[in-house]
Amino acid sequence: MNKILTIYLKELIEVLRDRRTLIFMIVLPTVILPLLFNVIIGFVVEQEKKADAATIRTTLINADSVPGLKTFLEGEKGYEMLTGFKSEDLKAAIREDRLDLGLVFPDDAAEVVEGGYQLELSAYYNNASLTNKALSRIRKAVGNYSEKKRGEKLAELGVTSAFSQRGVIEPVIVRKVGIAEKREIIGERVGGFLPYFFIIFCFVGALYPAIDISAGEKERGTLETLLLTPVPRSYLVAGKFLVVFTSGIISSVLCLTSMGVWIAIKTGEFGQELGEIIKSVTPMDLILIGSMMVPLAAIFAAILLSVSVYAKNFKEAQSYVTPFNFLIILPAVVAMLPVELDWKWAMVPVSNVALAIKELVKGTMDYTMLAVIFGSTVLVGAAGFLFCINWFKRESVLFRN
Amino acid sequence: MLDVRGLCKIFPAPKRKKGAPVMDKDPREEGKLFHAVRDVNFTCRDGEILGLLGVNGAGKTTTLRMLATALKPSRGTATLDGVDVVKNPLEVRRRIGFLSGSTGVYGRLTPEEMVTYYGKLHGMDAAKTKQRMNEIFALLDMETFRNKRCDNLSTGMKQKVSIARTLIHDPQVLFFDEPTAGLDVISSRTIVDFIRRCRDLGKTVVFSTHFMSEVERLCDRTVIIHEGRTFFDGSVDELREQTNQENVDEAFLTLVGGNK
Q1: End-to-end CA distance of chain A
Q2: Which residue did the predictor score with more confidence, B119 or B55?
């Protein structure tokens, strides 16, 4: 046992003295990840704000036929009313960015209004742009006018009170009484991302240490010497395995912590709801989330160590590991899809852990299923470890020249 | 005493492209098998320096790896003071030190950390490791760089770290696999001096090389391996006598049949 510890500590020191490993294991989850989030979310928020505040260059065509609406729209804020466009120019003008919105009144607008019928306006705008707010803003403005007109008309008909007016407009409505808690709803959206990141970081953080202490050691010619010490092969593998495992755990815990801190800081910006949800995730939930990552990290360690010790050198190990990136990412992505955790999914390694973490965040975990997933993941991890020991006993793996 | 009897190692043959003409087929290749070592026999008494001589690919490294318990022999036996390398590899490993020309050092550790690590792996306690390490460092003149990272050391210094690592558990038998291959004059001198010193310390040394001159200068006993078989086992003088050649290079070529 002492020798396992000796090997473990030595490998850990080596790993922690390697700049490349440190970047992937520590800097990436604590610095780069939050920074990336900040930039992306900041950018999106900024774009939204900009689109809301931007002045929309608008032209009204044939609006003179409904002078009331024309005056109303001209009085709205946030529009720059341009003139001199014809309805057939609108497409080109918007495409050439001389105009944001063209609102076209039909030729018979005056008669329609006179007759008391519904008036249909056409809005020309660029609907390819995701941040384009021209349509939603003009709809709101016209909607306000429309509501005002409706009130007046109903009053003329003798429906004066706001109450009875509502009764006329919509005699019956359905009010929704969703039984899902807020935590469940937001958990469904946010909860899918979290395990995805934990899992990826657990894998990426363990990747370089694994290559370094197996293929790297082969390349530097130190592996043979190590194999000739009077240490049982299983101890040797245990020491190395634990280092890779630790790296994965460190990386994923750092990821969890940095995301936690980041969310805590940003809670104010996200509003009350998310803050409450974060508060409703109990320490017990966090412990369960963490403990789900433990056997998963063992599986990753087994995969990474076996693959990289087979390689002749660092470079070869990197290319061998690449396909496994996809093998890990794909099942982790499942949590981000609208997939419900059922017994079928509980049997899929990696996916089951990702989905279980999502359920834990939502607060809707079936604990029997959690125990089964944990148990099966532990079994797969243990099998991986045993495979590693056997793999390390093969001459064709260790001396592959 | 090291006793090697009928040692044999078979590997799967290297894959060849179908239809590609076989130009350089090794006579040891039979179907899907490659007999890297077919029949190696020799004995080495305690305190002797034995040179394993042969051209590249003769089977020297494979033989040494089997003796050092890294590879398992396909057939034959090898015993060290009566301990069988296959049946009791851990016990054999306690008694041997192995240094190969391609051995590296842990770049991110210091010589002290590295040597201590190997001491611990050999089950030595901290006090004894430290004492022995200080002795070795003094012997090899390593005091000035004992706490520098190995990455920052010169080739010669690294070589010394490797030697110190090999010696830390005070092994009775030392195996050197082409220890001077690819080294400059000064570095290979370090190794040669060290092998001599081992003799003074009463240690048994088995080393492989393809330099005849090294064998002539250092060895009590020479074993010539060619195409996986022992061709000769005796002293350099006996080699000269047997082949009727004064020059060792010539003697070697006469023996393996390359002197046509």
Answers
A1: 32
A2: B119
User: What residue in B sits closest to A231 (Cα-Cα)?
Assistant: B121
Token digits for B191? 């190794």
Residues A288 and A153 in one domain: no
Residues A79 and A214 in one domain: no
- Distance of alpha carbon A231 from alpha carbon A223, whole angstroms: 13
> Could you tell me if residue A200 is inside a domain?
yes
The nearest CA of chain B is from the CA of A256 a distance in Å of 29
Q: Does A221 touch chain B (CB under 8 A)?
A: yes
Phi, psi of A81 (to 5 degrees): -85, 120
Give chain A's domain count: 2
CA closest to B14 among chain A residues: A401
Residue B74 sits in a domain whose CATH number is 3.40.50.300
For chain A, give the mean pLDDT.
87
Q: How far apart are CA B107 and CA A193, in angstroms?
A: 39
Same domain assignment for residues A161 and A235:
no
CA terminus-to-terminus distance, chain B: 37
**What residue numbers bound the domain in which B74 lies?**
2-256
In this model, does residue B260 exceed pLDDT 60? no
Using the Cβ of A397 and the Cβ atoms of chain B, whether some distance falls under 8 Å is answered with no
Render pLDDT for A116-154 as a digit per residue (tens, 0 to 9): 888 999 999 888 876 678 888 889 999 999 988 888 888
Mean pLDDT of A209-234: 92
State whether A234 and A284 are in the same domain: yes
Identify whether residues A24 and A140 lie together within a single domain: no
- The residue among A212 and B259 whose pLDDT is bigger is A212
Q: Is residue A276 part of a domain?
A: yes
Shortest Cα–Cα distance, A32 to chain B (Å): 26
Q: What is the model's pLDDT at position B194?
A: 86
- Domain identity same for A286 and A153: no
Q: Give, for A103, the enclosing helix (H) or strand (E).
A: strand A101-104
Q: Which of A3, A231, A395 shows the shortest C-beta gap to B72?
A: A395
Distance from CA of B200 to the nearest CA of A (A): 25
Are A28 and A68 in the same domain?
no
Domain of residue A262, residue span = 2-36+182-398
Size of interface A-B (CB pairs under 8 A): 71
> A249 and A119 in one domain?
no
Q: What tokens were used for A4?
A: 């396992």
φ, ψ of residue A102 to 5 degrees: the values are: -120, 120
Considering its fold, how many domains does chain B have in total? Answer: 1
The residue among A137, A140, A144, A142 whose CA lies nearest residue A48 is A137
Residue A174 belongs to a domain: no
Find the angle CA(B107)-CA(B110)-CA(B116) to the nearest 5 degrees.
Answer: 115
Q: Which tens digits make up the pLDDT trace of A145-191?
A: 998 888 888 888 888 888 888 888 888 989 888 777 777 777 777 77
B102 at A interface, C-beta within 8 A: yes
Structure confidence at residue A353 (pLDDT): 92
HSE (CB half, 13 Å, CA atoms) of B258?
11
Asked whether residue A362 is domain-assigned, the answer is: yes
Please say whether the beta carbons of A237 and A388 come within 8 A.
Answer: yes
Q: Name the residue of chain A whose CA is nearest to B126's CA.
A: A6
Chain B interface includes A399 (CB < 8 A): yes
